[in-house]
Design a protein that fits this description.
The chain is mainly α and 311 residues long. The protein has one domain: MetI-like fold (Orthogonal Bundle), CATH 1.10.3720. The protein has 14 helices and no strands. α5 packs across α12, α6 crosses α9 and α12 packs parallel to α13. The two termini are 34 Å apart.
Length: 311
């Protein structure tokens, strides 16, 4: 019986509008394949990377700034060349993509947790609680995301020390980016809750004696998932770009644990000396990743807009 139920759920999923419109949109399919390729390569980086950029014994400073293998002076062991420390660019990109995706996804999960809870409470409870929470969101939104991230990063480094910050850089960046972006979710969820809480199914739940937390999370939240899903795809790209910007400014990942942003920052100092590949290849990788995620986000936004997708 359970197998039949599972099969029926799978069949309903295959026949859903999501799959129907996805298979009709070639751009969405290409972007999804590229994104999954990024995820697979980043996940398997320890096994796919020719060298381990985190292990100093695997690279030699004498190999520093070696050009890609197809250029004069290149080495077949370093397909995309080496950086200023002699690390293989291809390996650092694989490991760096892993760090950037991990920070982006975890930061968005933190934003989601904060923003959804605050938005649900503000929209459902209303009154002074709503005013207080939304004024907090307005104050934070009055500053640019990067400014908030820089301030929080500087406070963490000054309070905890540079060594501690470098040791737990990924966790610190997840907290910094997550704290600076939660108002986007809170305001969107609040707007959805304000329209949903007046509907009959919410009134029926109240009459049945359900408590507010159950009504908010079990009944209202599932009907607010469409805008949350769209925002999440855009916010993943924004979180990756924020991490890259912070690393470029020296407030992100340490030099010995490269991300895409720190790789671009390292190569920027050598681009005028002719070692363009140190910045170019990580930069291209970052641009393509962000573009793919943004295009997927645009497709989801159009999918959930009934005025655009019609049979």
């Amino acid at each position: 019986m359970s197998q039949q139920a599972t099969m029926s759920r799978w069949q309903r999923f295959r026949q859903s509008d999501l799959i129907y419109y996805f298979l009709k949109d070639k751009v969405a399919m290409v972007c999804f394949v590229l994104f999954m390729l990024y995820v697979v390569l980043a996940t398997l980086a320890p096994w796919l990377a020719p060298h381990n950029p985190y292990d100093p014994s695997t690279y030699d400073i004498m190999d520093a700034e070696m050009p890609p293998s197809w250029l004069e002076g290149g080495d077949a062991n370093f397909l995309l060349g080496t950086d200023n420390q002699g690390r293989d660019i291809l390996s650092t990109i694989l490991y760096g993509s892993r760090v950037s995706l991990m920070i982006g996804l975890c930061a968005v999960a933190l934003q989601l947790a904060f923003g959804v809870v605050i938005g649900l409470v503000a929209g459902y409870v209303g009154g002074r609680v709503d005013n207080l929470l939304m004024r907090m969101a307005d104050i934070q939104l009055s500053f640019s995301t990067m400014m908030v991230a820089i301030i929080v990063s500087a406070i963490f480094q000054a309070t905890l020390g540079g060594e501690f910050y470098s040791q737990y850089a990924i966790l610190m960046l997840v907290l910094i980016i997550g704290i600076s972006e939660w108002p986007q979710y809170a305001r969107t969820v609040r707007a959805s809750v304000l329209s949903e809480k007046k509907k009959e199914y919410v009134e029926a739940a109240r009459v049945m004696g359900f408590k507010a937390p159950r009504i908010m999370f079990r009944h209202i939240l599932p009907n607010c998932l469409s805008p949350i899903l769209v925002i999440s795809t855009v916010q993943v790209a924004n979180a990756i770009m924020s991490e890259a910007a912070l690393s470029f400014l020296g407030l992100g990942m340490p030099v010995d644990k490269p991300s895409l942003g720190s790789l671009i920052s390292i190569g920027f100092n050598y681009i005028f000396s002719g070692s363009w590949w140190i910045t170019a290849f990580p930069g291209i990788c970052l641009v393509v990743l962000v573009l793919v995620i943004n295009l997927l986000g645009d497709w989801l936004r159009d999918l959930f807009n009934p005025k655009i997708y019609k049979d």
